[in-house]
Amino acid sequence: MSPSTLPALATESPGRVLLVDDEPAFQRLGGAFLRNLGQEVTVAGDADQALEAFATVRPELVLLDLAMPPSMDPEQGLALIARFAGVPVVVLTGHADHELALRAADLGAWDFLPKPIDPDLLRFVVTRALRKHRLDQELQQLRQQQGEEAMGLLGQAPVMQSLRAMIRRVAPTQVNVLVLGPTGTGKELVARALHEHGRQPTAPFVPVHCGALSAELLESELFGHLKGSFTGAYRDQPGLVEVARGGTLFLDEVGEMPAAMQVKLLRFLQEGSFMPVGGRALRTSEVRVVAATHRDLEAMVRTGDFREDLYYRLKGVVLRTPALAERRPDVPLLAARFAQMRGVGISSSAMAWLGACDWPGNVRELKAVVEAAAALLLPGQSDLDAEVLALAAGVDLGPASALPGHGSGAGSAVGAVGEPGGLLDAALTELERRLISEAMQASGGNQSEAARRLGVSRVGLIKKLGRLGLK
Ligand SMILES: Nc1ncnc2c1ncn2[C@@H]1O[C@H](COP(=O)(O)OP(=O)(O)OP(=O)(O)O)[C@@H](O)[C@H]1O
Q1: Are residues 367 and 419 in the same domain?
Q2: Which residues form the Sigma-54 factor interaction domain (predicted)?
Q3: How many structural domains are present in the chain?
């Protein structure tokens, strides 16, 4: 493409250009020329000024004259190129300095312009460099988003970015990982991401809920049993440690593991061997173990509720999933994504309401509320509003204060659509039934665990199970 065919950046936002040159005449003329092109120009007359401006202005392009005071030694100019990492550097050289220009290119300069500068060429190179930089930035952002999507672990907060980076780093190793964090913060997602980015993503990922079963049942689940080893053992059953062979065994809520099982798990972790229930010969299986808990395992070790030796075996690397309260700016992002997954939008006032809530159940709770609200939308409605979200959250919209940032009119609307026996009532019952069934399933039938997941009391859950005929 020739300089004349490249359109100016007329419709694009101004680029931040750092012009590093000690000649006052060029600073003035070059600066004015670039400003006329619509760029924001910062001028630096020596290396120190250039570095300071680079840090403060964060330019998208650096135009660098290699010979600068105090030494005027081009070697110093060349050394500067590496300090402008991540930004295209266009080197300004004398006409006869081809060799210098080539060395600059070797050191990472993006292009060079011979002096005296041809204005057409300057316009062309600047436009192209800025465009390249912006495309690179966009690509980087897309890659980041893709990485996020690929892991299923959404969130832009720095703590989430570090978590994803840690997962990428730890996943290809075989080291055991302990995932700590409050309920509903994505510990299982982390375990799955470790597996999917690990060495054997096609091998099985096998989750085990350690709190949902008695010690005996858990032993039989994990290590399997032989036919006849107890009433009801009609055939040999392989343990989950064998099912997970070559893959990942995810020990969810490991803090709830009965003491009798802790010692057996320890032996498996230390020696890779285990004894099926009713068996007489040790078997072996190689798995990667990822364990998770919302409990304070260290405190449990101190109180003697969790074996110290097992704790150290499990915590090869510790990853922490943050509570939603620690990354509030992520709430709108997550809500928008969950709504999009259900094919609906969210109004901006509803976003404000979501952002003001506390979310003690973390991402699980936020997701459940958005999904429930999407299910409750009336025909013709395409956006979730605060009213339907509050309804889904089980919040009484009462007078103004109940709903952060919303007026009192909403309260009456809830009363009107919530007439018992109506469409809404049936939808709510169905929703309740679904959420409870899912929680019971995820908890392996353990009511206390399901109640915890749902954020209700165990007694409350038992009543609901009876009322909905789910017992
Ligand atoms: N960062 C996230 N991005 C997208 N979805 C998330 C995120 N964190 C959690 N979720 C969703 O929230 C729900 C709960 O996640 P998960 O089961 O991984 O949490 P957990 O910490 O293991 O919970 P618990 O301690 O109760 O077992 C899932 O539906 C999951 O997809």
Answers
A1: yes
A2: 153-375
A3: 3
Which of 304, 322, 340 is a domain's end point? 322
Evaluate if residue 105 carries a pLDDT over 70: yes
Give the CATH number, domain containing residue 437. 1.10.8.60
Cis peptide before 204 (omega within 30 of 0): no
Question: Cα separation of 454 and 431, whole Å?
Answer: 13
Q: Is 189 in the pocket of ligand 1 (CB under 6 A)?
A: yes
Structure tokens, 331: 């709430």
Residues 177 and 95 grouped into a single domain: no
Residues 233 and 346 in one domain: no
Q: Please give the pLDDT value at position 140.
A: 78
Q: What per-residue confidence (pLDDT) applies to 148?
A: 67
Q: How many angstroms separate the CA atoms of 36 and 17, rounded?
A: 13
Query: Does residue 155's CB lie within 6 angstroms of at least one atom of ligand 1?
Result: yes
What is the model's pLDDT at position 11? 43
CATH of the domain at 260: 3.40.50.300
- Cα dihedral value 130, 135, 139, 141, nearest 10: 60
User: CA 156 from chain center: how many Å?
Assistant: 7
Does 184 sit in the ligand 1 pocket, CB within 6 Å? yes
Specify the pairing of strand 383-384 against strand 40-44: unpaired
Distance between CA atoms of 261 and 255, rounded to whole angstroms?
Answer: 11
Supply the residue whose CA is at minimum distance from atom 8 of ligand 1: 186
Three-state SS for 350-374 is HHHHHHHCCCCCHHHHHHHHHHHHH
Protein residue with its CA nearest to atom 24 in ligand 1: 183
Residue 200 is part of which domain span? 158-322
Task: Based on the fold, state whether residues 314 and 334 are members of the same structural domain.
Answer: no
Residues 121 and 196 in one domain: no
Whichever domain contains 98, its CATH number is 3.40.50.2300
pLDDT over 90 (residue 213): no
Expressed in angstroms and rounded, the spacing between residue 367 Cα and the centre of ligand 1 is 9
